[in-house]
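Before surveying the methods themselves, let us examine one representative protein, pairing a chain with its fold in token form.
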Amino acid sequence: MRETYLALRNLRGVLILLIVAFHCFSAYIITQPAHPPPFDQPPYDWRAFPMIDNERWLGFDLFCAFQFLCLMQLMFFLSGLFVWPSISHKGWRRFVGHRTIRLGVPFVLGVYLLMPLAFFPVYRVTAVDPGWSAFWSHWTALPITPTGPMWFLWFLLALNICAALIYRLAPGARALLAPHLAKAATRPSMLFFFLVAICTITYLPLSAIYLPWQWVGIGPFEVQASLGPQYAIFFLFGLAVGAYGHDRGLLDAHGALVHHWRRWLIGSFAAFFLWIISTALIAKVPGAPVAALQIVSDLGLVIFAASACFGLAGLFLRFANVSWPPLIDSVSEHAYGIYFFHYLFAIWLQFALLDLPLGALVKGLIVLAGTVILSCTASIVTDRVVDGGRALLALGVSRFGVLSPAGGPLSRTNLSD
């Protein structure tokens, strides 16, 4: 169990770094518009790509496309893995209360305090009056509520509440799925094809209506229209796998998934090229059969996300099931805090480098290094503030009998939290 836990913990840390890298490099991709879009005119494209630099590099396009197609599916899969054991341990009521504090409070603070600070330099790029008061007037007049990466928190909270309802209304679901999940140790392809089939059924109709980066929702409660159901499916998939056991079934350290990790990764690269070639043909070749190519592209996306999930899980279970060096391990330990703070630092660093005569690769790496260092530092400081507050409350408990909370929303916790 410890080897599986360490592998998944390390995988989470790497995924957080890849998400940070995606946002750091997105300012330097070739497919960005030539000029920044107006701040207060629809469709508010700056929400997807806040900062646009004149320096571009094709390598960042390939990297960001690769991450865009699978990263969040993997994040939701990992987020679901430890939910069922956590509900079993805490009880569904306490679990929902704990997750509401841990996810809901940072979501509110992030949307209404952190995001205005993060998007301020985006406004300044095209503003006539770059002052804060002018920005605030434009910001409050927007008919939308930009959430940046904070959307993940509310959507994950909603999925956690759904998981608690499943536990409450269908406590026998685990026993019902156990025989099928037991076969996954020797036949992971069975679960793979099931996952691909469900995602295909939900994704293809929506992709015909919405672009992959198109958002729908009410107020700050937005999600990508075509990919939202896919995220929920990966979360429920992780919920089922985790309910059966983290060292059994699909995640058996000696099972077929681990033994054949190369096949899954090769399959993911093949699916990625299937997607990118068909997408390029649609965009670049006049008279191409768009409808047929779009179906091929959509299938490539679905297969890539599932095979990348299986391949990376197998790879980390095979090679990353030990404690990593302290510097790298610190990223895994503070992954939540890094995710919470990184967007603010990434955008401001991109803004600071706009007029410097540096290449796109150099700028991207500077932004990435600075964002990781600053985000990790902010997370550590937040943890220490929370720990100090808990110590003071504990002192109050001993003196006055005051109840102490279990911990702050961004405090260091195990995966099961």
The mean pLDDT is 89. The two ends are 17 Å apart (CA to CA). The longest strand covers residues 215-218.
